[in-house]
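User: My collaborator sent over this chain with a note saying "see what the structure looks like." That's all I know about it. Can you take a look?
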Amino acid sequence: MYQALYRKYRPMSFDDVVGQQHITQTLRNEIISNKPSHAYLLMGSRGTGKTTCAKLIAKAVNCLNPQNGSPCGECDMCRGIDSGSIMDVLEIDAASNNGVDNIRDLREEANFLPTVAKYRVYIIDEAHMLSTGAVNALLKIMEEPPEHVIFILATTEIHKMPATIQSRCQRFDFKRIGVDDMSARLQEICDRENISVEKEALIMISRLAEGGMRDAISLLDLCASHSTEITVMSVQQAAGLVAQDYLFEIINAVIKGDVAPIYDIISDVNGVSVEYDRLCQQLITHYRNLMVVSTVQKPENMIICSSDTLNRYQEQAKRYSVAKILYGISVLQECASNMTKSSSRRFELEMALIKMCDTGLSASNESLLARIEYLEGKLNYIMANGVAVSENKETSSTEKPQTIQDRPIKTEHIINTTESATPKIIEPKKEDVPTVPMENWQEVLERLKVLNNALRGVLLNSSAYIRGKHVLIDCDNPIFIDMVKTNEVTKDTLKQAIMEVTGRKYAIGPYNKPKPVNIGNTKSKLEEILAIANENGVDIKEI
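Assistant: Without extra context I'll predict from the sequence alone. Here is the result:
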């Protein structure tokens, strides 16, 4: 009979437990010193090793031949506990045995000495589901436990555990297992099972497991049954995921505000039997990655993906403001919540994506922030392009009051209000224009966080000066000069950032620092005249 991989590769010693070294080392030391606690409280999310460690503790304290604090796995006690034939080790599911009578029976039984083992060990899984009466009955024996009894409580919801229980236990917090540790363990299993697998596929499985090793091994088992060679595509098909290309296409359509492609993509997704709630979660993760790329200097440390995918995130993030990204996340999270109550998940997702195309369709704080940012950018663009302002004339009582769209926009340009219909902007005379430091250069760098974070990284520790209609940038990083010379997008992005901050349009260029004058090599005018006279045979005497 085939045995599932998560059961076949359940850790048999503390050394096999992945990602919980801070716990297993403490437990090992207690076993070696023969000082186990009378009660343990193991808490953490599912699949992180709570029940596994509980069984390892039960075997280790009763093992006839322990190995460096771990059970040997070969003696009669270890084998009997694994098979369930040792009645001194009892595992109780509190979800179905949570009544006060169950705990009273346990309490009466605990007073008797173990039959064959050294300790009676009671493993209570999902302990937070014990009733109030059961908790009170358990407290009585935990206050004055017999020397031969050890209680091990496991829970995924520590906040539901009474403080009176927690204070009587040695508590261990199981953390979510990291992607690197999980991928290494999955690779080890694949090597033993002769399973061909891509590294990127293992990373995807580890990410989908969300820190739970059991879920990761179960998904690996499913993928191995689905295909002889595990690839990224086979993982997506087995897990019911949408391909990464679909996600980028959906977001591109949202950025353009084009609804038609969204319906086409969702129809294609429907054809490959993808659950819409899973697609919604994938979109939330995609937006989270865009948020990281837009706000973090080194996103590769926070986004686990290939370099090509990271480049695609960075390119897409350049077309999106942080405010709109936050708005998208807010809409998708609301959609995920509504899906649990709706009869049509597809309709909920379509409605959410349409909202994301137009921030005006929502009254949330995130949508208002996105709209304000958009209007600010438009206003700065209008100011930068020198919109003419007509003369201020008093309107008579019979004139129609101006709307917001009709009101003239004030700018800092000098306007020559002549009798002609079109006012002219007076240009400054072309003379020696002074060079002054640009005081709001740091605001420009902050704006580049959104527009082009890579360019901002190159310009760190730089400064800028204004000379007439030019912004001259003083940057010692040679990469900046190469980017400006070879990449038009870089220049346009930098100009846009300067325009949005200052409200004016500037040309850009490098700042050439003045060369120091070598005073030691300079000659006075008199010395130069004397030298020329000597060369031409003119005799000059000093008086």
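A starting point for your reply to your collaborator: The longest helix spans residues 276-295.
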